[in-house]
Amino acid sequence: MIQLVYGGVYLYSPKGIDRQRLVLTIAAPGVLDSRRRFVTGLTVEAAHDGDPLTVPITVSGTRRFVNTTRPKDLIRDWFVEYHDTLSRQEMEAVRAMRRIAEDL
What we know:
- This protein is of the alpha+beta class.
- The chain is built from 2 helices and 7 strands, in the order ββαβββββα.
- Strands 1, 2, 3, 4, 5, 6 and 7 form a 7-stranded antiparallel sheet that branches.
- β1 and β2 form a beta hairpin.
């Protein structure tokens, strides 16, 4: 099982579904360090979706985007590959937009 970190970007591969995707972990470090089966994350997209609450990020030198309005419960066992960790500034932007999104 992969050790998950706050602000980490991982390849996520749901069992029985032929659709891998990149996800950003946003669960608190205590949750990520626990044995909880589910952690909270956001899907990482290749293009901006036009939503003002979408945050640009950099993953392994490539510009990507995270819509902060759609958190997902992700199954820990389905994380298959680590890609990168967001910078402190990028995570602060994601957290700020998540707080706004929670008020919608």
